[in-house]
Design a protein that fits this description.
The chain is of the alpha+beta class and about 270 residues long. Helix content is about 50%, strand content about 15%.
Length: about 270
């Protein structure tokens, strides 16, 4: 059994094997190991960019060099493989992408300013914070250079304008109104769903106010606590909203308290909503 004295050496061995495949254009490390201080539960998130799809047998062969029972050819979200390196607790999560696809995601945002309801800048964050481990022809270096542009005023306004109305401004379809209906029906599943939707757009707005990229789904409170401009006691308000599921009479007051704090921040920063 191969022994890996460090995460860095394990990653390099994986990269070396994928780099030998002629289809592979670039390999990048992202996730907790590049964006924040990793902990013992942090996966090794590798992104393999290839002009042509890598045959599954090639992927399986590489995976079996590190794990006896890898999960190969997962297609639940993006195309990917997962395994835990034998004799360790190092979980490897590999995502396969085409260069054209990720270029289109960046162009959609940075060129055409097509923002989303929630997670508007996550792909931008992923590319900009990636650590290049292999770059056959310099393509990823050029892509990352494009991603290293400032968060423009125009994009900031568009992200806020896209996400703010769905919180509680829309007459019938705002998340808070839907949450109220769910509480009335005692629909616990939908309550959870609407709280998650509120938080997704809430964080998109909060990062946009600070012109910081939205990192995605994990450790959002930790990221947000480092922002220079944030609502007072927002972490406590988020916690109160989440735990209110067990106390239905507190759900709506907690949601409004969280969003009132966001309104105060927006007014303080000069956004008239």
């Amino acid at each position: 059994m191969q022994h890996y004295p460090s995460t860095e050496i394990a990653v390099q061995h994986i990269v070396d094997q994928f780099a030998m495949l002629p289809q592979v254009t670039a390999i990048a490390l992202a996730g907790s190991h590049t964006a924040t201080t990793p902990d013992e539960k942090s996966d090794i998130d590798l992104y393999i960019y290839s002009l042509e799809q890598i045959p599954v047998p090639n992927r399986s062969e590489i995976a079996h060099n590190f794990c006896d029972q890898p999960q190969v050819d997962n297609r639940f979200w993006e195309d990917g493989d997962e395994w835990v390196i034998n004799g360790t607790q190092l979980a490897v999560d590999i995502t396969y992408r085409s260069p054209q696809w990720i270029e289109e995601q960046l162009d959609r945002l940075l060129v055409h300013h097509q923002v989303s309801v929630g997670c508007s800048t996550c792909f931008w964050f992923n590319v900009r914070t990636s650590k290049i481990l292999f770059d056959r022809n310099g393509w990823f270096t050029r892509l990352q250079s494009k991603a290293n542009q400032p968060y423009s005023d125009a994009l900031q306004r568009l992200v806020i304008a896209k996400n703010y109305p769905v919180l509680r401004t829309l007459v019938d379809s705002a998340y808070v109104h839907q949450l109220e209906s769910a509480v009335t029906r005692n629909d616990l599943v939908y309550i959870q769903n609407r709280i998650a939707a509120i938080l997704t757009s809430y964080f998109d707005i909060l990062f946009a106010v600070n012109r910081e990229l939205n990192p995605g789904e994990k450790r959002l409170v930790n990221y947000a606590q480092q922002l220079p401009q944030a609502p007072v006691q927002f972490a406590e308000d988020i916690h109160a909203l989440i735990v209110s599921v067990c106390l239905p009479q507190q759900i709506l007051p907690a949601a409004h308290r969280l969003l009132d704090g966001l309104d105060e921040l927006l007014n303080r920063e000069g956004f008239k909503m």
